[in-house]
Amino acid sequence: MARIRKFVAYRALKRPYTRFSKYKVKNFVRARPVCKVVRFDMGEQRSDYQYLLQLLPAQTTGFQIRDNAIESARQGANRVLEAKLGKTGYFLRTKIYPHHVMRENPLASGAGADRMSTGMAHNYGKPIGIAAQVFPGKAVFEVLINKEHLDLAKLALKRASYKIPFHYAIVVTDLSKKKKGEQ
Questions:
Q1: Of 39, 91, 110, 146, which alpha carbon lies 20 to 30 A from 176's?
Q2: DSSP result, 69-116
Q3: What is the per-residue pLDDT across 9-43, written as a single tens digit (0 to 9) for each?
Q4: Which residues, listed in sequence order, are joined to residue 57 by a DSSP beta bridge?
Q5: Which are the contacts of 24, defined by CB distance < 8 A and separation ≥ 6?
Q6: 55: burial class by Cβ within 10 Å (0-12, 13-18, 19+)?
Q7: Does the structure show a pLDDT above 70 at 115?
Q8: 76: Cβ–Cβ under 8 A, 6 or more apart, which residues?
Q9: Are 173 and 181 in contact (CB under 8 A)?
Q10: Residue ranges of the domains in the chain?
Q11: What tens digit of pLDDT does each residue of 6-18 get?
Q12: Does domain 39-104+123-182 fall into CATH 3.90.1170.10?
């Protein structure tokens, strides 16, 4: 099986060619690759959590994250939380969805390549994967947790940030103060 290409070739934002219609004539892409992110919400969703932690990019420009990197980060963060808290002591949500279809126009090299390659004449390329476009200030992951497990949630988000490109900041929001202000 062929290895996937290094993501440095795809991490810059491009104009999204994601149109995939049930009518073949209206498609921009021939086929849409399957999303590798298995679940977007993990844990138990309740309203009595005290803290919200968000993983925000420290970038000032937008970028892309491949779907297999999102899945790897999700698994790493979920494993840390689930090992200590079980399935009901937290709520982890993936806030980005990979819509953008990445394409590749492979150029042949070596002897006889001029007879096989189309060069830039038909350079649209075939779909090789999907990626999520992330803009500054947009959370990648968020965790709802109680105060006694705050350090564990920070560790989980830090582990997730190791699996995805660029640098991230963890922003902590106290939800109990907001609820007291409403009453």
A1: 39
A2: HHHHHHHHHHHHHHHHHTTSS-EEEE-----EEEEE-PPP-STTHHHH
A3: 777 887 766 667 777 777 767 777 888 988 899 88
A4: 168
A5: none
A6: buried
A7: no
A8: 156, 159, 160, 162, 163
A9: no
A10: 39-104+123-182
A11: 777 777 887 766 6
A12: yes
- Which residue type is seen at 8? V
Between vectors from CA 166 to CA 162 and to CA 169, what angle results, nearest 5°?
A: 75
Give the position of tokens 């997730």. 160
CA 2 to chain centre: 23
Q: Do residues 56 and 169 lie in contact, with contact meaning Cβ atoms separated by under 8 Å?
A: yes
Provide the 10 A C-beta neighbour count for residue 62.
Answer: 14
3-state secondary structure of 15: coil
Q: 136 by DSSP, 3-state: which?
A: coil
CA 24 – CA 122 distance, rounded (Å): 19
HEC states along 34-66? Answer: CCCCCCCEEECCCCCCCEEEEEEECCCCCEEEE
CB 43, CB 89: distance < 8 Å: yes
Q: ∠21-14-138 over CA atoms, to 5°? A: 90
H helix or E strand, kind and range, residue 21:
none
Q: Residue 30: what residue type? A: R
List beta partners, residue 82: none
